Amino acid sequence: MAVPEQRSDPPPPAVSDPDSLRALLGGRAGALDATVPAVAFVVGLTVAQASGSASPVAWGGGTAVVAAAVLAVFRLVTGRRPRSVLIGLLGVAVAALIALYTGRAVDFFLVQIVTNAASALAWAVSIIIRWPLLGLVVGTALGQRTAWRRDPDLLRGYQRASCVWVGQYLVRLAVFLPLFAADEVVALGVARVLLTWPLVAGCVASSWPLLRTALPAGHPGLRHPVVSRRRSPGAG
Q1: Of 53, 156, 183, 206, which one is least surrounded by beta carbons within 10 A?
Q2: Whole-model pTM?
Q3: In angstroms, what CA-CA distances link 228 with 64, 151, 158, 212, 215?
Q4: Averaged pLDDT, 42-51
Q5: Dihedral, CA atoms, 107, 109, 115, 118, nearest 10 degrees?
Q6: Rounded mean pLDDT of 199-228?
Q7: Gyration radius (Cα) of the chain, Å
């Protein structure tokens, strides 16, 4: 009589690694979209000033908008969501219009400063009220909605890791504000580049251990929240 083949159960899914977390949060593409228009603005402004143009701010703003538009078309062609693409393009256009209205090139970076301050506040509040934004971003990307909130370990992990992202925005503000006050346009452009992708990569690398260590041994990971069901009243 043949002995039936024994099959072992597959191991539980592993916790996602830092690379997958980085991909969920936008990766290098988002950083490129954020830095190219700023670099284009500084380049356009500098070239216009060197050539003796009467309106270097307009040249810088126009260069930034054109660069953002080219990126937007490329992202749409490659399957990026139209809403995120248009929001990015709108942000660059608003920044250029502000600089053109005030006549101060440094005001191109005002939108970036305000959004970083607002983001720092929003992320901090989300931690306090137990709706950490990192959980909302990752949960939405994974199609979980808010199931992760019913997993105490994941909720705690997202709260811990979100603290690092608050720090990200505070670091940018600590660098941007003095440069803005000193009217250092070129330095702001350089800081924008250095404090985008490298800083995001550092945040992922720093927040991942905080998130992972909040999950007990055997936890199936970010993609599989462990939701405990409450016992119904009167159950034995």
Answers
A1: 183
A2: 0.81
A3: 50, 7, 18, 20, 15
A4: 96
A5: -60
A6: 84
A7: 23
Q: Which of 209, 159, 216 is nearest to 17 (CA)?
A: 209
**Among candidates 169, 203, 176, which has minimal Cα distance to 192?**
176
If pLDDT is split at 50, 70 and 90, which confidence band does 165 have?
Answer: very high
User: What is the token pair recorded at 60?
Assistant: 């810088």
Contact between residue 163 and residue 125 where contact means Cβ atoms under 8 Å apart: no
Q: Please name the residue that has the structure tokens 């990192």.
A: 134
Cβ atoms of residues 228 and 150 within 8 Å = yes
Q: What span, in angstroms and rounded, lies between the C-alpha atoms of 160 and 182?
A: 35
Measured at the CA of 26, the angle between CA 131 and CA 158, to 5 degrees, comes to 25
